[in-house]
Design goal:
The chain is about 40% helix and about 15% strand. It has four helices and four strands; from the N terminus they run H-H-H-E-E-E-E-H. It has helices at about 15-25, 30-35, 40-90, 170-174; strands spanning about 120-130, 135-140, 150-155, 160. The N and C termini lie far apart (about 80 Å).
């Protein structure tokens, strides 16, 4: 099919749209819209302020999630250490008083790491004898959780926690 030029379809009586707009208002409307492309300074500042506020909330929320993940890691480590204490008690008749022991070491101890995998809490056997034990997880370094600075578990499965001031925070930490 041969292509026909656009001029063949144009109604010459009505004229071009651009010419009609120019004739009525005295100014070229199409030329006026070309100069307004882009953003104004106030629009950019408002967008940056919205991004900054959103980022502030996101960082605070992310930090809260990291603290909760560290608490869960410490609780898991304490529960694993308590299970190992019970195995040790069955094998030796008393509870173990040291961590980080390897199989066959003398004196025997618990094959449990003395810190959590990410290193946020440090585990220690606070007390161990023939009938009772207490394992404590303490927040290590200055970046620890102020609400759950110290968690513990004993031979009866009783769990506890304290904040940096020593106040009971068991409900929030376990």
């Amino acid at each position: 099919l041969p292509r026909l030029p656009a001029a063949a379809f144009r109604d010459h009586r009505r004229g071009d749209l651009r010419c009609r707009l120019r004739r009525r208002s005295g100014a070229d409307l199409m030329a006026q819209t070309r100069g307004t492309a882009g953003f104004t300074l106030i629009e950019v500042v408002i967008a940056l302020a919205i991004v900054a506020i959103t980022t502030t909330f996101a960082i605070a929320s992310y930090r809260g999630h990291l603290l909760r993940a560290d608490r869960v890691e410490a609780a898991y480590a304490l529960l694993a250490a308590a299970a190992e204490q019970e195995k040790f008690h069955l094998a030796h008749g008393h509870y173990g008083d040291r961590l980080d022991a390897v199989a066959g070491s003398d004196p025997p101890g618990l094959p449990v790491a003395s810190h959590t995998p990410r290193g946020r809490y440090r585990l220690a056997v606070a007390m161990a004898d023939a009938s009772a034990f207490r394992i404590v997880a303490s927040a290590s370094g200055g970046s620890g959780d102020p609400l759950c600075a110290r968690l513990f578990i004993d031979e009866s499965g009783r769990r506890g926690a304290a904040d940096v001031d020593g106040r009971d925070s068991t409900v929030k930490c376990w």
